[in-house]
Design brief:
Layout: E1 2-9, E2 12-19, E3 30-38, H1 47-50, E4 66-74, E5 86-90, E6 102-105, E7 110-112, H2 119-123, H3 126-139, E8 147-151, H4 158-167, E9 171-176, H5 181-187, E10 191-194, H6 200-204, E11 207-212, H7 216-222, E12 226-234, H8 245-250, H9 258-270, E13 277-282, H10 286-289, E14 302-306
Parallel strand pairs: 8-9, 8-11, 9-10, 11-12, 13-14
Antiparallel strand pairs: 1-2, 3-4, 3-6, 3-14, 4-5, 5-7
Helix pairs in contact: 3-4
Length: about 300
């Protein structure tokens, strides 16, 4: 099969199309014929991309761990999943991803594709939506009437965080750049702050929850906006290796969850949750999708690699 694999050159990490053996699902596994794969540009530098689970150096990784596609085969012991079923979901960070014609995953990591979405649209959802869901509801325990500050409201995760927080009945304050203020307001944010022109601390006041997708100075400045019993949720990768106990408690990495994927699919089909694709690139140009500035985007949202019909 065709796959895009990571290779290191004098110019840095790049993706190269290669012909590789098609994977087969082991017991309990699922083989997916990939139709589209979502892009997280920073993934090429993540630890699971460059290392194995046991810490050895990893080479030739296939990126793209969220996808939409069709079940092509199932391993022994798999129930509740049918060959030919349209699904969407994610797979293990240390496994080869979905920027390939096929990938392997587990039943707990997928759900039926939202009927109202194309494969391209569906591939933009799983990791971003689950990150927002788990951060707001599982970790922050966000409640109706609470005030939540979402940093990066027009980003891949922020888009879902704003919508999900609003659907829970929270008062949503979001930061965004000037060109995205109206877009984020349209997602349901009660207040939108231009982070380049205003200090969010001066506008937001005290909040119950901060959902930070930015990290760095933005995260550090956000502690002062929390109420006495406020909760911080942080997902920026620059926080992952911290020794600060407070930051360690705030940081998390999304986990697969079939029940939550099913819930996200229902809200998408009901029209109460929306996803946005900023650009679609063909498989042959997948490397450009991971290179900053090499793909022309149309508005906020995620870049998606189209792999098959």
């Amino acid at each position: 099969m065709k796959a895009m694999r990571l290779t290191n050159t004098t110019g840095g990490a790049t993706l190269v199309e290669e012909s590789v053996s098609q994977p087969m699902p082991g017991p309990g596994g699922i083989l997916v014929r990939v139709c589209a794969a979502g892009v997280i540009p920073t993934e090429l530098g993540w630890y699971p991309t460059t290392h194995t689970k046991t810490g050895e150096t990893r080479s030739g990784a296939v990126p793209g761990h969220e996808f939409s596609g069709i079940v092509a085969a199932v391993g022994d012991g798999v129930t509740g999943v049918e060959i030919g079923q349209e699904i969407y979901g994610m797979n293990d960070w240390f496994a080869d991803g979905a920027t390939a014609e096929y990938c392997v995953t587990l039943p707990a990591s997928i759900a039926a594709k939202p009927k109202s979405l194309s494969h391209i649209e569906a591939a933009s959802v799983p990791i971003s939506a689950l990150t927002a869901w788990q951060g707001l509801f599982d970790r922050a325990k966000l409640q109706a009437g609470e005030r939540v500050l979402v940093h990066g409201g027009a980003g891949a995760v922020g888009i879902f965080a704003v919508q999900l927080a609003r659907s829970r009945g929270a008062h949503v304050i979001a930061t965004a750049s000037e060109q995205n203020l109206a877009f984020v307001s349209g997602l349901g944010a009660d207040e939108v702050i231009d982070y380049r022109k205003e200090r969010f601390e001066d506008r937001a006041g005290k909040v119950d929850v901060v959902f930070d997708t930015v990290g760095g100075e933005t995260l550090q400045r956000s502690w002062g906006t929390l109420k006495k019993d406020g909760r911080m949720v942080a997902i920026a990768s620059d926080v992952e290796g911290t020794d600060d106990p407070k930051l360690k408690a705030a940081f998390f990495i999304v986990e697969p969850n079939r029940e939550q994927l099913e819930g996200v699919a229902r809200t998408l089909d009901e029209g109460t949750l929306r996803t946005f694709v900023s650009a679609t690139v063909p498989f042959e140009q997948a490397g450009q999708a991971y290179a900053n500035g090499q793909v022309s985007k149309v508005g906020p949202g995620k870049i998606v690699v189209a792999i098959a019909e």
